[in-house]
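Q:
My hope is that you can spare some time for a protein that puzzles me. I hope you can help me see how the letters and the tokens relate. Thank you; the sequence and its tokens follow:
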Amino acid sequence: MPLIRRRSISTNHGALYVAAPGGGGGATFDSGNTGSQLTLSNGNRTATGSGSGWSIAMSTTSKTTGKYYVEFEWTTGGQTSVETFGIGNNNQNINSFPSAAGDCAVVRGTQANPLSSGKFTVTGANLPTHSAVQGGTTAFAVDFDAGKGWMAYDNTFGGDPAAGTNPFITWTADASAIFFMYACSSSNAATCRATSGQQTYSPPSGFSAWG
């Protein structure tokens, strides 16, 4: 019997598209939901900016319930305010700055100016301090049932995901699909690591790799 892979259908500003089918490597950035100033490579796990304007790359899969963990590697570049990492609904303007439209919560590379829009709220005081360098890891642990998210740099969280305290991101949990996302306006690059085999660190207690 032939293997049939289910392909999800998402919306992007009202236009239907079929998300690029994934292989056995877990979630990647979605070539059908990535802005024109980002180029995907490495099996669509790495997004590289052109340096000519902001674009957003959304993930191929989303979550509505459960507790999940995802990492981003600073593949090229270091601490900078011209790239962001975070989560959001599939209502972004992918050829613009994060939070320009839709619902999202992101941290900029410098963490000096975390951003949110729509239903999400961010608390900058609950971010870890760091000096990001090439090869470093920015990660998110997200409790979709509680409407809470925590950010870590090199496995140091600002808050305690296992205990559910001091989250960086909060929202009123609902049934809407939430994706991980990366945005950049420079020529830097980031690589998403969604599966346990790809990830550098173990998820916090009670959380699982995004997959």
User: Anything to note?
Assistant: The chain has no helices and 18 strands.
